[in-house]
Design a protein that fits this description.
Number of helices: 2
CATH class of the largest domain: Alpha Beta
Radius of gyration: 16 Å
CATH architecture of the largest domain: 2-Layer Sandwich
Order of helices and strands: EHEEEEHEEE
Largest sheet: 4 strands, mixed
CATH topology of the largest domain: Signal recognition particle alu RNA binding heterodimer, srp9/1
Shape: elongated
Number of strands: 8
Strand order of the largest sheet: 1-4-3-2
Helix content: 10-25%
Number of domains: 2
Distance between the termini: 28 Å
Structural class: alpha/beta
Length: about 130
């Protein structure tokens, strides 16, 4: 069995996946646009995505553009990195134009830990456990 993650976006799935591919080392393996739009799609959406798939850090993230999609609220994608510096770098990148829930800091369980929602509505936890047990 394998568990994958599926995220609905409000018209910016392609932009989000391209950003994750460029900045998080992901690899987009599928990107299919709606060929014919139905009346429930906003008219300003140029090329909504029907289904997309990206591999990041050994997991599969899938997504689509859905009218009225809301940002993630009760689930987080967690990125575990090898160094405190990489944690800071990743946190700073993903927090641009996003919403920080917890600043990057040392905790009882991690050398560096922070929580945010990026500009695409995806919620993230960034974690470096170096030296922690």
């Amino acid at each position: 069995m394998k568990v994958d993650i599926y995220i609905n976006y409000a018209g910016h799935c392609e932009e989000a996946f391209r950003f994750y591919e460029q900045h998080l080392g992901g690899k987009i393996t599928m990107m299919t646009a709606h060929e014919q739009l139905t009346s429930n799609f906003p008219t300003d959406w140029k090329n909504p995505i029907l289904h997309a798939r990206i591999e990041i850090g050994g997991i599969t993230l899938m997504g689509a553009d859905i009218p009225n999609a809301e940002p993630m609220r009760s689930a987080y994608l967690t990125i575990r990195v090898d160094t405190p510096e990489k944690a800071e770098q990743t946190f700073n990148l993903l927090s641009i134009d996003g919403q920080v829930f917890m600043q990057m800091e040392q905790t009882f369980f991690a050398t560096r830990f922070g929580m945010l929602r990026d500009k695409f509505g995806t919620s993230w936890m960034i974690l470096n456990e170096t030296g922690k047990h």
